[in-house]
Design goal:
Distance between the termini: 20 Å
Helix content: 55-70%
Order of helices and strands: HH
Number of helices: 2
Strand content: under 5%
Number of strands: 0
Largest sheet: none
Structural class: mainly alpha
Radius of gyration: 13 Å
Length: 64
């Protein structure tokens, strides 16, 4: 399982078009690839819907 903080880092890489760093685990690679696809789909849907600056976010974990 990928921690939320790492998932947010992967999302930042995917949404900025930066490559995945060397040494990433198989799980991180899969998550990164899924995030790239999700980001592209979000941009297409936003354009179709007329949204000019779409944002995809992952909420932060809250420690109680």
């Amino acid at each position: 399982m990928i921690p939320n903080k790492k998932y947010q880092q992967l999302l930042a890489l995917a949404s900025s078009g930066k490559p995945l760093p060397k040494g990433a685990t198989k799980e991180e690679k899969k998550a990164y690839e899924e995030l790239v696809i999700d980001h592209k789909n979000m941009l297409k849907l936003a354009k179709k819907s007329g949204i000019k600056e779409p944002i995809i976010e992952i909420p932060m974990e809250v420690d109680w």
